[in-house]
Design goal:
The chain is α/β, with parallel strands linked by helices. The protein has one domain: Rossmann fold. A six-stranded parallel beta sheet has the order 3-2-1-4-5-6. Helix 5 links the parallel strand 5 and strand 6. Helix 4 packs parallel to helix 5. It starts with 7 loop residues before the first strand and ends with a helix.
Length: 187
C-alpha cells in the first residue's frame, strides 16, 4: 500500500458526542476515538487534510427523513449531540462537514473541497461502519475516489454489522487495513 500524501485525505464519520455514547462493536467508542485520533494526528503531521464529518438535522428539523420503515432510527438529542469529540479536534486546518443524512457526500461540500485540493484517495473511518461510513464509501466509489478503510477505527452497533461491511462490501470498494498499517504507509 502506497499513500500519496498530497493526494490523500482522512475522512472521519460521526465521531461526535451523541454517537460515541452509544454501544459499539467490535470496538468500543474509546478505541475508535483513539485510533481515529492517531490517524488524524498522522495526517496533520504530513500536511494532508483532515475532514471531520458530523450529522445533525437543520435547526428547524424539516430535513430529517421520516421513512416508512420497519426499523426507524431513534435519536435522543442533547445540546452537545453534534459536537466533535475533543480528542478528534478540530485542529487548525481541519475541515468540518455537517451532513443531514447518512452519507457525507449527499448535500454537502465534501466532494468539492476534496477535488479543489486534488484529492484522489480518502482514508475513511468512523461510526457506524454499516451506516454513515458505508454510505459515504459507496458515494466515494461512484465519484471515482480510491479508498482505504481503517477497520479498527470504525465500529457499528453490533459485531455482525461491522464484520459484514468490512468483509463483504469494503473489499469491493477499496483496501481494508488496520490503523497502524495506514500510519506506517503515510509516514
Amino acid at each position: 500500500m502506497i499513500i500519496e500524501k498530497n493526494k490523500t485525505a482522512l475522512v472521519v464519520i460521526d465521531i461526535q458526542k451523541g454517537i460515541v455514547r452509544r454501544q459499539t462493536a467490535p470496538y468500543s467508542a474509546d478505541i475508535i476515538i483513539k485510533n481515529a485520533s492517531s490517524l488524524a494526528e498522522a495526517f496533520r503531521k504530513v500536511g494532508s487534510p483532515v475532514f471531520l464529518v458530523r450529522v445533525t438535522p437543520s435547526p428547524d428539523g424539516l430535513d430529517a427523513l421520516k421513512p416508512v420503515a420497519d426499523a426507524v432510527m431513534q435519536r435522543t438529542d442533547s445540546p452537545d449531540w453534534a459536537d466533535i469529540v475533543p480528542e478528534m479536534g478540530p485542529k487548525p486546518g481541519d475541515f468540518i462537514i455537517t451532513k443531514r443524512q447518512w452519507g457525507a457526500f449527499y448535500g454537502t461540500e465534501l466532494d468539492l473541497e476534496l477535488r479543489r485540493r486534488g484529492i484522489t484517495t480518502i482514508v475513511l473511518c468512523g461510526i457506524s461502519t454499516n451506516i454513515g461510513v458505508e454510505s459515504t464509501a459507496r458515494f466515494a466509489y461512484e465519484y471515482g475516489y480510491n479508498q482505504i478503510f481503517a477497520e479498527d477505527a470504525s465500529a457499528a452497533a453490533t459485531e455482525e454489522e461491522h464484520k459484514h461491511t468490512i468483509t463483504k462490501i469494503f473489499p469491493r470498494l477499496g483496501l481494508v487495513r488496520k490503523t497502524e498499517e495506514i500510519i506506517s504507509a503515510l509516514l
